[in-house]
Design brief:
667 residues, alpha/beta, Rossmann fold, 3 domains, seven-stranded mixed sheet, 50% helix, elongated
Length: 667
């Protein structure tokens, strides 16, 4: 029995190779002609059995029919398709060819019958014969193609034990097209077993042999029934479906795979294989992104020289990628990090852009270097993304935070004013709102200086003043120092995953969306604004860690532990965005707002900034640096930091002053 099964298996494989490799176009053409002959002979003898008078000229009529069907097959190229991949396009070709052949055959039959010829050449036709013959030929050619296709599909399914069984999300045209393609594609690692639909009226139906099951019920039973643990979906479905659905899929152990690119069927190029990749946590955290209105801002870049500070960073590099899509003249990339700057430069130049891209190694805290850049390049737009941003690190080094975040911003902003730059756009952070750490306070101090500098221009009546605009946003997914890459590294090494606090929450957005906000809000502002926007719901970091562990195929707390390490210095549980009607002014976009903040007089704030920078540049008085920051920004209250002692000191002084008699205070 074993030898017999082996023999049968070898026979099947041999037949497979023969049909796969030895069915060139001429064999398909001959098969189609053979079907014409069989149909003609069958119809002829059927007619002979039911007709009262016999027909004549069998050979002539057979040759005539065969020639007509052969000519139309050549004209319509019915034999050019790959039989085992026959589609509706091939069937349309066959139908058109057969209809054309039937019409020509009928026309010739009428012409020959009505022509008065004597002798043996007086040939008559039955006018119904060509039409019925055409239907029989079309049916036979359909059967031939689908028999071959069914054989291949059956054989492939018997050899699909190594393929990944998967559900396909949706039952619309795109999802069904994807399912059909995966079934026909022998090279695909996926074997679709069912469609998952949200509409109850579709549940229970069958498409191409695959059932449509409900998405509203638990997947546990479906996974067991169909022996499938994978769900394939389109990127567009991420925004359309509720996030609770994907959370449930992850909890129940489904592997989520997403189609990134998929080209539909093309007669000339065939079918392009879909790019199916494991879904990323960034995809699940993404919201309905704010789309950039290019028409509103493209005139700002037309023929301009644009400078980006911090260009090698996560935000600066994405700003550069988006800017080169506009018709600007020159793009200057300034950063002190040589390797990432070189990588970005090579990437942009290699993209085929016509924009002149120039990398410049330089530090924004160097006034000499930055002045050289402005004198030589004379930029008209400046995007200031250079900054120190790690909260715990800046708690250790407040002087560095002030020198770079405040001093660097002051140098660039002053040069913009001096050299008549049209617009200066500063990238800020939500941590500048009621700051609890040095980093956030330094960014707030930079915001104050930039805004006061613009207001000073208005006060002096400067013609065509430089427009200073600030944009604030929350945590950026995938950026350097983001919690997501940290969790990925910890999961890859087997854990544990570290979370500072179980209740800590953060707002997230994607890098492209953040940079679109910088470009659009920054380039549509009238000067002096601090733009913020609705970032949706805050994400609980503990839940994020659990979700990432499940996406990696592990079980939280069992395969990989999650431990709390305690809040870091300067860290707070909840970030504030001031995205309320009481604290914001609406703009043209319902999710983009202008923050209502206290304004400062330049003549008052400038001496304070100079004193702050003088102290910070000594690098030996961190307490004094923080003290001056707190004096400048009263809402700066440290949390989980040694600088909380300064807050207590300020409060004690305030209580002491309030307890003194009014005359004493006056004196």
């Amino acid at each position: 029995m074993a030898n017999f099964r082996d023999l049968m298996l070898r026979g099947e494989r041999y037949l497979w190779r023969v049909m796969r490799n030895f069915m060139p176009r001429w064999t398909i053409f001959l098969f189609d002609e053979f079907i014409v002959v069989i149909a003609f002979v069958s119809l002829w003898f059927f007619r002979e059995n039911i007709a009262a008078t016999p027909s004549q000229h069998f050979i002539f009529k057979l040759m005539m029919a065969g020639t007509i069907f052969a000519v139309t097959a050549i004209l319509f190229r019915t034999y050019h398709g790959v039989v085992r991949f026959s589609t509706m396009v091939d069937l349309k070709r066959l139908s058109n060819s057969t209809i054309a052949a039937s019409i020509v055959y009928t026309a010739l039959a009428i012409l020959i019958t009505e022509t008065d010829v004597e002798g043996d050449w007086n040939i008559t036709f039955n006018y119904w014969f060509p039409g019925v013959l055409g239907m029989m030929v079309l049916a036979g050619q359909f059967i031939f193609r689908f028999t071959v296709r069914s054989f291949f599909e059956t054989f492939e399914q018997s050899n699909n034990s190594n393929k990944i069984r998967a559900f396909i999300l949706g039952s619309d045209t795109d999802s069904i097209f994807l399912g059909n393609h995966l079934l026909a594609d022998r090279s695909s690692p996926y074997q679709p077993v069912a469609f998952v639909a949200f509409r109850s009226n579709q549940v229970g139906k069958v498409v191409n042999g695959m059932p449509i099951i409900s998405a509203t019920k638990g997947f546990s039973k479906h996974m067991e029934t169909y022996n499938a643990k994978t769900l394939i979906l389109y990127r567009s479905q991420l925004e359309a479906m509720p996030k609770e659905f994907y959370d449930r899929c992850i909890v129940e152990g489904l592997d989520l795979m997403m189609i990134s690119t998929f080209t539909r069927y093309d007669e000339n190029n065939g079918v392009a294989a879909p790019q199916i990749n494991k879904i990323k946590i960034e995809d699940l955290l993404g919201r309905n992104a704010i789309r950039m209105d290019r028409e509103r801002i493209e005139d700002q870049f037309e023929g301009q020289t644009i400078l980006i500070t911090g260009a090698a960073g996560s935000i600066g590099s994405e700003i550069a990628r988006q800017i080169i899509t506009f018709n600007c003249k020159e793009l200057l990339l300034v950063d002190q990090a040589e390797t990432p700057l070189n990588d970005l430069w090579l990437e942009l130049v290699g993209s085929g852009t016509k924009v002149s891209v120039k990398p410049i190694i330089g530090n924004v805290t160097s006034q000499v270097k930055m002045r050289q850049i402005f004198e030589i390049a004379k930029p008209s737009l400046v995007f200031h993304a250079a900054a120190y941003k790690h909260v715990p690190m800046m708690e250790f080094h407040p002087s560095a935070a002030v020198v770079t975040n405040v001093g660097g911003t002051k140098i660039v902003a002053d040069l913009c004013l001096e050299f008549g730059v049209k617009r200066f756009v500063m990238v800020s952070t939500d941590k500048a709102v009621n700051p609890t750490n040095v980093m956030g306070a330094s960014k707030r101090a930079a915001e104050i200086y930039v805004q006061s500098l613009y207001l000073k221009q208005l006060e002096k009546g400067v013609e065509n003043p430089t427009l200073f605009v600030t944009t604030r946003f929350g945590n950026v997914l995938g950026s350097n120092g983001s919690v997501v890459p940290l969790f990925k590294r910890q999961i890859e090494t087997g854990g544990p995953v570290t979370v500072t606090h179980k209740e800590i929450t953060r707002y997230f957005m994607t890098i492209p969306e953040a940079c679109s906000l910088v470009l659009e809000a920054g380039c549509t502002g009238n000067g002096g604004e601090i733009y913020i926007f609705d970032m949706g719901e805050a994400v609980r970091i503990y839940d994020l860690a659990e979700k990432m562990i499940r996406l990696s195929g592990k079980i939280p707390h069992k395969d990989i532990k999650i431990i709390e390490t305690g809040l870091r210095s300067g860290e707070k549980l909840y970030e504030e965005l001031l995205a309320t009607s009481e604290n914001t002014i609406p703009t043209y976009h319902k999710k983009v707002m202008i923050a209502k903040v206290r304004t400062y007089d330049y003549d008052e704030i400038h001496p304070e900034i100079k004193d702050l920078l003088y102290t910070a540049n000594k690098y030996v008085y961190p307490l004094e640096v923080v003290r001056q920051l707190k004096k400048m920004i009263p809402e700066f209250k440290s949390q989980n930091s040694k600088y909380e002692a300064l807050d207590a000191e300020f409060e004690a002084n305030l209580r002491s002053m309030q307890s003194q008699p009014a005359a004493t205070i006056k004196k």
